[in-house]
Each structure stands twice: as structure tokens, then as C-alpha cells.
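Researcher: Predict the fold of GCN5-related N-acetyltransferase.
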Amino acid sequence: MNDAIVRAGNSQLQHGAYNDRIYLMKLAEDDYPGILDDLEKLALDQGYGKIVAKIPDWARSGFLQMGYQQEAAVPGLFNGVADGYFVSKFLSDSRAREKDPEGAAAVIHTASVRCREREDEVKMPERSFHCRICKDTDVSQMAQVYQTVFETYPFPVHDPEYIAKTMLHNFVYLGIWHDEKLVALSAIEIDLQSANGEMTDFATLPAYRGRGLSHFLLYQAEQVVGGKDIRTVYTIARATSFGMNITFAKRGYIYTGRLVNNTNISGSFESMNVWYKPL
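Model: C-alpha cells for GCN5-related N-acetyltransferase follow.
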């Protein structure tokens, strides 16, 4: 069962047993600092192992004073001017203990080397593929791709109704078709108020991996946000995934930190790397 996305005053958070955490996704200024006590109470009542918050600079000191630690920083996350931070509070020792720091470091090292292969323009790998923005009539195919790629996922992308709902709000999905078959997907979560976009939900069917489809989707996503007055884009990528971290490095994204044991993907907690790029 997926975690719930709820309002807390004028702020937005996700919480539940699946990810065993609270994720403060959007902090409203009029909810601060009272929301600090609310988050603590909810986490203790539910027995969660972690609270992670995406916050602007003006709230950083207050969260750190309450025992949070900074895991990543994104310059200009808010309107290209104010910096943003991912801060976390671990409520169990095991949740704070990274499983494979050497493996995660090897991924970042490899990505930093491969970033020299950056291309200003990325072309579709093969003529039989075509890419476009997804429509509401595509949601069943989209859900099938996500079901095939991810046994479980932190958001209910397996559900066509969820995908359709996000399309009506602040998500743009891009798909690549091979003839009439949808074979790869990505999404952009756009925050016009803060002038940022999260590049997320990349998925490629196993038979079509190794052809650079995610790289092309990321390039196309940047073209989409380029026309929407977005100042900063960022992503939260699996720390042990060579492919996705290299993809972002090659597009000029900058590594800025790791969210330890942050996300339940396919049944286990994974650490996530944060990358950003000013536009």
C-alpha cells in the first residue's frame, strides 16, 4: 500500500509505513516553526524511522536545531535565488546506517568521469522510435510499463488513475514508443511557484535498455521545462544505479548529496543521490 499524500496546514507531506518515513515535500512559511513539533509527533506516534524535509534556506537553522542533519543542498532551488536543502532526522540507528557507502561512492566517481562525454544535443537512438508528451489516453500503457519495471515504488505509478490525476495538476510525462509499443517513460514534476522542476519516474522496459532512451528522455524534458520559466531542475536518483547517475552527469547536472536509506524501491530501502542543474 502506498503512503498517503496529505496537507498539513498549507504544507504538503507524504507519510506511511511503506517508506517508513515522513517526507515534507513543500513547506509553507505560515506553518513554520509549528510544523516541526507536528512532524515529530506524527513520526513518534506512527513509529517511523526517518523524517526528510525539502526546505528553503530560511527554515534550515530551525530544522538543524531540532536534530535534523543536512543531506543535500540545491543552490537556487527556489526561484533561482534562494537555496534549498534536504534535511533529515533519523529515529533509529539502523535507518541512519548506510548499507553500501563504497558502492555509492564508486557510482559517483564513475559519473564524474563520464560527465566529460556531455552532448549539447541528444538524438533519438533509432528511427523506429518516436518520443512525445503523454496524453490521458496513454495512462493504461504507462501504468503497465511502471508495473513491469518496478515491483514496488514510493508513489502509486502502477495506478492509471493516479497518473491521470497528476497529469491534470503539475506533472508532464514523456514517452518513447517503438512502433506502437510504449517502451520508456519519464516525468517532470513542475513547481511554477518556486520555478523548479524535478526530473523523476524514469523507466525503460528491460528489452530496450542500453540504447540511451533515458538520456534522450532527459534531454527532451529539459526542452519542455525550458519554455516554462523554470530556473532550476533536480533529481533524486538511486545511489547504486550507474546508468541513471551517469545520465544526469552527462547532461551537466551537479551531485550535491545523498539521502541515506530514504526510499523503498522493490521491497528494500535505498539511498538516493541528489543532482541539480541551473537553467
